[in-house]
Amino acid sequence: MTTRIGSGLAPTDSGVDAFAEAAARAALRLGGAPADLIVVFAGRDNLDHADQGLAAVGERLGAGALIGCGAQGVVADGHEVEAGGVAVWAASFADGGAAETFHLEALQAGDAVAVAGMPMLDGTDAVLLLADPYTFPVEALLAQLAVDNPGLPVIGGIASAGGGPGLGVLMHDGVVEHEGAVGVALRGVDVRPAVSQGARPIGPEMVITAGEENVIAELASRPALERIKEAITELDPGERRLAAQGLLLGIVIDPNQPEYERGDFLIRGLLDVDDEAGTVTVGEQVRVGQTVRLQVRDGDSADEDLRAVLDGQLRELRRPPAGALLFTCNGRGAGMFGVEDHDASALDYAFAGAPAAGFFCAGEIGPVGDRNFLHGFTATMAVFP
Description:
single chain; alpha+beta; 6-stranded mixed beta sheet; globular
């Protein structure tokens, strides 16, 4: 038996009926196969009916493991609803595939934060994670998982429909939660993570020769700000215009490669510069010896990067996958690309219409190299061969 996947979209905000419509469409594409895992994304105007909506999903897809969250907008089958809607995705795994759902809570322990509810992850192939932005420390969890379970891919997004602490909606099997995170540990399931950070490298590679925490003091043994300004002057006019609209920094995570390509950099913003000290503050912890390169992001760069990532997946798989989950930033969409359905239609075209669903996130979770990070402005995918 091979993995079978179905997905469905209800573009309207009709409450329980929207959940039922999306689930029915997913069930139809599943072709009668039992749903081992169900993932639900629902726009804000449908969340008042989340309890009944989950019951409607269960009636149409059965009692498989289920996770979900509230969303600014949803994605399915080549289309994007940037505000509202319901998307349902369901998978029937090949023999031996299993899904174990969980609900995580952040507990204050003195000055530290502990996480309760994480299952044992021995033998886990991948984790899907959906988190509330106000009540759960995603980056701290990812850092701990890198120590406890190195190389384990974590893929997902930050719920984007909550209005503050305790107002978010997370779905865990038949229960609606309002804090923490929900997820699923997948075992015996082939899952391929793919992260398109939507940025293009410009200028030369530079090595950090002095710095501490998230402050870079020197690049190539020169004051960091001075070296960055020099690199900008060496750009062609088109790249200088993009740099003037917003400059980013790419940090190489895995140095054990002969050369660094687009997907090898973790993209972070420049938070501050100190003209007097010549330092640059970035949105990530850095260390001496890391290689960095300037990056720019615009619609054309993001489009080029996404298509390159999708082509790379196809080359590895040698045929379209059974389906995919898509976690795309709420800063993308028509505002970035000038057209509707950009990310969803690119995935649909590349994967020959394979069932896919997802949502517009307030932050995306996925690996760069063998470590997982919280991103922004990315399109992050879980691809199921």
